[in-house]
Structure formats: structure tokens, C-alpha cells
Amino acid sequence: MSLTGHAYLVAGMANAIDAVVAHLRENGIETAGNPDVSIRTYNQFLIDDARELTARASSKALRERRVFIIAASTFMNEAQNALLKTIEEPIAGTLFFLITPAPHSLLPTLRSRTQLLTLPHIAGPEGLIDAKRFLSSPPAERIEQLKPLLEKDEDDKRDLGNILMFLSSLERMLEKSPVESRQGLEAVYRARKYAGDKGSLLKPLLEQVALLVQ
Questions:
Q1: Which of 37-41, 57-61, 161-165, 203-207 has the lowest mean pLDDT?
Q2: pLDDT value at 144 more than 80
Q3: Nearest Cα to 79, choosing from 109, 119, 117?
Q4: Secondary structure of 138-206 in the HEC alphabet?
């Protein structure tokens, strides 16, 4: 796929960065040692991060064009709103790649200003939970299966990327099912919506998913 636009959404996590870099090279944009190529990863992309990106994107390229590759487990709504004008009216030749586990969960206003970029050589991350097995298990077993997602790291944080990836996989399976559970889908939507909010109660949100999906 040639780069005909200026802003792209890529489904994935930090593992997708190499695929985006390879795609840039295929389109004649060298990334190694290029001061115009910026690559950053975030757990949560906050409004201050959006303001910093806007400031950096306002300067002209030192060579031919500026490229910003941003990989984040979640983009906070305030940050997305702050990016709208920057994404819509960038300096000529500027490219943006926003990598996130669930692009469809971004605000419609931001999605409408981007193109979904599907790169076949992106390796799909191995989920901590198999969505198919999860759906076929009884509620009590599902709650047990949630434990790896609810574990915290040394900074007392959970991996939002894995949580959103699991919820997206579950959502896709439920939407394709001829006997989909509306309650279950709503529980998945709700968990995905609030997963990145500061102070959100992830454990009850995910447990509600486990109890309601069919």
C-alpha cells in the first residue's frame, strides 16, 4: 500500500513499529539516522503528550518530510481531541502513524481524519487469554482466566494493551456470532471504554464481561 494520505491508524502494539518502519522504507523513506523520523511508545497517550506532539509537528522537516510513529495502549479522549487540528491540517509532507490495539475504539472525529493501514507482515501479538476458549468456558472458569490480565507490574500498573487486545478479540467474535449476546457486547463496550480511565475499576468491569457474554 502506497502512502497516499498523511495520517494512518495501525492495529497492534509496540510490536507493530518495525512493520511501519519497513513500510516506510518500501515507500522510499529511510528511517535509520533520519532526524525527521520520531518513534515513541506510551502506556497512556495523555493530553500533555498530544500538546508535545503538536509542538514538534509544527516545525519543518530537516530533509524531505517529517514522520511521527506513536504507539500507545490507549489514547485518552482529551488527547485525541487535542490532536484533531494537528492531524487534519499538518505541515505539508508530514506523516502520522498511530498504533493502538483497538483503532475502532478511538473517537469517530479522529478516525475520520485517518486511514486504516493494514500491514500483512505485522505479527499478531499472542494474547494472554484465548477469546474462543474464554467464550466456551463457564463463568467461574472465565473469571479464573482473567487473572493474567489483572496482574500488576512493579509499578503497580496493569498492561492496558493486553486488556484492550483481549476485549477487541472478544468483540469481533461476538459480533460474528449468530446468537450474540447484546448484554455481553454492551459489557465489552463498557469495559473497553473505561479501561484507560484513571481510577477505573478494571476487575469488576472484566468480571462483568465474564458473567454476561454468551
A1: 161-165
A2: yes
A3: 109
A4: CHHHHHHHCHHHHCCCCCCCCCHHHHHHHHHHHHHHHHHCCCCCHHHHHHHHHHHHHCCCCCCCHHHHH
Cell of 104: 475502532
Query: Distance (Å, rounded) from C-alpha 182 to C-alpha 121?
Result: 34
3-state secondary structure at position 123: coil
pLDDT digits (tens, 9 = 90+) for 53-83: 999 998 888 888 899 999 998 898 899 999 9
The CB-side HSE value for 185 (13 A sphere, CA atoms) comes to 12
Residue 1: band (very low, low, confident or very high) from pLDDT cuts 50, 70, 90 = low
Closest CA to 131 of 43, 19, 205, 206: 206
Domains of the chain listed by start with CATH number: 7-116 (3.40.50.300), 131-212 (no CATH)
- Rounded to whole angstroms, how far apart are CA atoms 209 and 185? 8
